[in-house]
Every structure is written in structure tokens, then in C-alpha cells.
């Protein structure tokens, strides 16, 4: 019995962390070398591999709500290209809002369709506005710190995916215990995949502008589905959503600091606030009876 439990835990670790990390490392390196600044494809590939291993019923074309993360990954790429290639701020924001809304609509409609079209559209619009706000805030943070994310940039160019990785890591145990083990595992796979991307991007200096946007779409979908699909309390969903904004806000507030000091302030602030929210979340969702 104990041997079976040990094997099960090992398989869960491999599917949730090890395989997504390894795939992200490999794809990030190859994409960064062949496609120059497209190493962000690594964390998308790593997450999708984790998704296929954790969610054994994954299908394409999608049939279930979880299946639509394959489409979300594609929408994330389209969103990044839109932000990178279109100069006009109004047009960029408009197209981004439509793409963000489409992603959430596809992820939430299979669950909310019984509540009617208005409910699904309302959720999609609100979520898209939140993501658009993050996108604009992160762009302002880069501008205020006079950072132009190009090739051969250091840690400053990776602050936003690092922030989202920390949020995912802090959210995973809360949602696993209080809502859905499946979504908790997917958050772990997401965090591991982004970690692999960050390592390669930092070492090879292959970083693209708006590199956190596809990751934001995936993470936003997981946090929202944790409430809509798995009944995680909405208060926890809102706290986790708010914690995503720590990195851009602190980045703006510390924009005049020396680069190395600013990076440390931003990352440490994100770790502290995410840890506090995770601890509060665990306290709120912890079952009265034993987990075993």
C-alpha cells in the first residue's frame, strides 16, 4: 500500500513539475535560437505537456472546459504578436481586449452556459478588463523604469513572468485543497514551465516584449476556473487576482531605484505578499476533518 502511494506521488511530481520544466527548458532553448526572441514558446509547450499528462482526457478540438487551454495558448501568441507589431495604443488595446475576452469565454462557457449567455459574457468582459489593466500597467512599469525589453536584457526583462510564476506557486496548494486538485496541479505545471523559460531566457538573453501576456492568459484562466469550475471561494479568487498586480505596481513605485535593487524589491515583495495570501487562503479553505 505504501509503495503504491509512493509511486503515485512520484508520478504526480513528474507530471506536475519535472516534465513541464524539462520540456520548457528544451523548447525555450530551441525557439530562442531558431526564432530569436520567441523563447516564450517554451513555457507554453511545457504547460501543454503538463496539461496532457494531468488531464488525461485532453482532446482537440476541445470538448471540455479544461481542453480549451490549448486554444488559450494560441490566443496568447496572437495577443503577444498584436502588442508587439501594432504601434497604435488604442488599436492594440482594442484587439487585446477582444482576444482576452474570447479566451475567457471559451474557458468559462462550457460551465456557465446553463446560466445563460449574459452571465458568460459578463464574466468574460470583466476578466478581459482585468487582464487589459495588467497589460497596460506592466507597459507603464517598463516605461517608467526606462526599460526597453529587447535581446540581451537581464533579469529586469523577466520580472513579470517571475511574478506570475510566484503567484501560481502560492495558489497551487490553496486551490488543490480548497477547490480542485486538477487545477492545483495545472498551476504547478504552469509554475514549473515558466521557471524553465525564465532560466533559459536569462542565460541566452532571448526575451521578447510582452513575454508575460500568454502566461497571464493561462494563469487568469486557471484562477477564474478555480471558482467557476471548482467552487473555490470568490474571496480567494479575488485575492489571488490582486496578487498578480504586485509586480507591476511595485515596479512602478521603485522605478527610480538602481536596477539590481529594484529587481530585488519587486521579487521579494511579490514573494511576501503571495505567501501571506497563500497562508490566509489555506486557513480559509482548510477542512475541519483530517486530509487523510
Automatic annotation (TrEMBL):
<feature type="transmembrane region" description="Helical">
    <location>
        <begin position="210"/>
        <end position="228"/>
    </location>
</feature>
<feature type="transmembrane region" description="Helical">
    <location>
        <begin position="12"/>
        <end position="31"/>
    </location>
</feature>
<feature type="transmembrane region" description="Helical">
    <location>
        <begin position="265"/>
        <end position="286"/>
    </location>
</feature>
<feature type="transmembrane region" description="Helical">
    <location>
        <begin position="182"/>
        <end position="203"/>
    </location>
</feature>
<feature type="transmembrane region" description="Helical">
    <location>
        <begin position="234"/>
        <end position="253"/>
    </location>
</feature>
<feature type="transmembrane region" description="Helical">
    <location>
        <begin position="158"/>
        <end position="176"/>
    </location>
</feature>
<keyword id="KW-0472">Membrane</keyword>
<feature type="transmembrane region" description="Helical">
    <location>
        <begin position="40"/>
        <end position="60"/>
    </location>
</feature>
<keyword id="KW-0812">Transmembrane</keyword>
<protein>
    <submittedName>
        <fullName>Uncharacterized protein</fullName>
    </submittedName>
</protein>
<feature type="transmembrane region" description="Helical">
    <location>
        <begin position="66"/>
        <end position="87"/>
    </location>
</feature>
<keyword id="KW-1133">Transmembrane helix</keyword>
<feature type="transmembrane region" description="Helical">
    <location>
        <begin position="94"/>
        <end position="112"/>
    </location>
</feature>
<feature type="transmembrane region" description="Helical">
    <location>
        <begin position="118"/>
        <end position="137"/>
    </location>
</feature>
Amino acid at each position: 500500500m505504501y509503495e503504491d502511494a509512493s509511486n503515485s506521488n512520484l508520478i504526480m511530481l513528474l507530471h506536475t513539475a519535472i516534465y513541464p520544466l524539462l520540456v520548457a527548458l528544451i523548447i525555450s532553448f530551441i525557439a530562442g535560437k531558431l526564432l530569436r526572441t520567441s523563447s516564450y514558446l517554451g513555457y507554453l509547450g511545457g504547460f501543454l505537456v503538463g496539461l496532457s499528462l494531468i488531464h488525461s482526457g485532453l482532446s482537440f478540438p476541445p470538448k471540455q472546459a479544461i481542453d480549451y487551454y490549448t486554444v488559450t495558448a494560441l490566443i496568447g501568441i496572437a495577443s503577444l504578436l498584436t502588442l508587439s507589431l501594432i504601434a497604435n495604443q488604442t488599436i492594440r488595446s482594442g484587439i487585446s481586449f477582444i482576444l482576452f475576452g474570447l479566451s475567457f469565454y471559451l474557458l468559462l462557457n462550457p460551465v456557465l452556459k446553463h446560466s445563460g449567455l449574459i452571465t458568460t459574457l459578463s464574466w468574460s468582459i470583466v476578466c478581459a478588463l482585468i487582464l487589459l489593466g495588467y497589460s497596460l500597467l506592466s507597459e507603464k512599469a517598463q516605461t517608467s523604469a526606462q526599460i526597453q525589453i529587447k535581446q540581451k536584457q537581464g533579469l529586469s526583462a523577466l520580472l513579470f513572468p517571475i511574478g506570475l510564476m510566484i503567484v501560481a506557486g502560492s495558489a497551487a496548494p490553496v486551490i488543490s485543497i480548497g477547490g480542485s486538485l486538477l487545477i492545483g496541479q495545472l498551476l504547478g505545471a504552469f509554475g514549473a514551465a515558466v521557471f524553465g523559460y525564465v532560466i533559459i531566457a536569462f542565460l541566452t538573453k532571448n526575451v521578447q516584449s510582452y513575454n508575460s501576456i500568454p502566461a497571464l492568459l493561462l494563469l487568469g484562466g486557471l484562477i477564474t476556473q478555480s471558482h467557476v469550475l471548482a467552487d473555490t471561494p470568490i474571496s480567494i479568487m479575488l485575492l489571488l487576482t490582486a496578487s498578480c498586480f504586485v509586480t507591476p505596481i511595485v515596479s512602478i513605485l521603485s522605478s527610480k531605484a538602481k536596477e539590481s535593487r529594484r529587481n530585488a524589491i519587486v521579487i521579494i515583495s511579490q514573494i511576501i505578499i503571495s505567501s501571506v495570501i497563500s497562508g490566509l487562503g489555506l486557513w480559509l479553505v482548510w477542512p475541519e476533518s483530517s486530509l487523510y
